[in-house]
Amino acid sequence: MKTQLTIALLLALATPSLAGMDWASARLEGAMSAYQTGDYRTARRGFQRLAEHGSAIAETMLGVMYAKGQGVRASAAVAAGWFHRAASRGYGPAQIALSDAFAHGQGVSRNVDDAYFWALAATTGGDRSAEASGRIRVTTLGRSLSRETRAEIGEEVHNWRPRAQRER
């Protein structure tokens, strides 16, 4: 019992104070913690609230929950919608998820051009993991596209701006 109390005290001291965090960071941490422990109802409420305030991470996590049916009825179409919202904000992991949805026709019509677009967009966002995943998908998807189509999509990605930047 004494050991458990000591561990709990050490964890409490090691965890950053929520008072020092801003509202969104605290809510995101709480939602992610609930998700990781399988409390999907609490996680969904937290992510939903953050998504209402424009959090691409929360939108992506809602997409994951709908794709996997975690705490919600599984729906590839709803998942793709959440991935699209976050991808449109320039969030690399959502761009990868949306690329995969288009590549496999999960919740959206199968469309290699759109899959290629979102994979290529992920390579330019600054998220190293998404960039690496995007490069792999660009190579794979690009094999089924003509050089002209790849160039046209490349130009579209070059001229595309995330939603937050377009609204300024």
TrEMBL record:
Signal peptide: 1-19
Residues spanning the membrane: none
Coiled coil: none
Top-rank lineage group of the source organism: Bacteria
SMART domains the UniProt entry points to: SEL1
InterPro entries linked to this entry: Sel1-like (IPR006597), Sel1_AlgK (IPR050767), TPR-like_helical_dom_sf (IPR011990)
Keywords annotated in UniProt: Signal
PANTHER family (UniProt xref): ERAD-ASSOCIATED E3 UBIQUITIN-PROTEIN LIGASE COMPONENT HRD3 (PTHR11102:SF160), SEL-1-LIKE PROTEIN (PTHR11102)
Protein name per its UniProtKB record: Sel1 repeat-containing protein
Species of the source: Sphingosinicella microcystinivorans
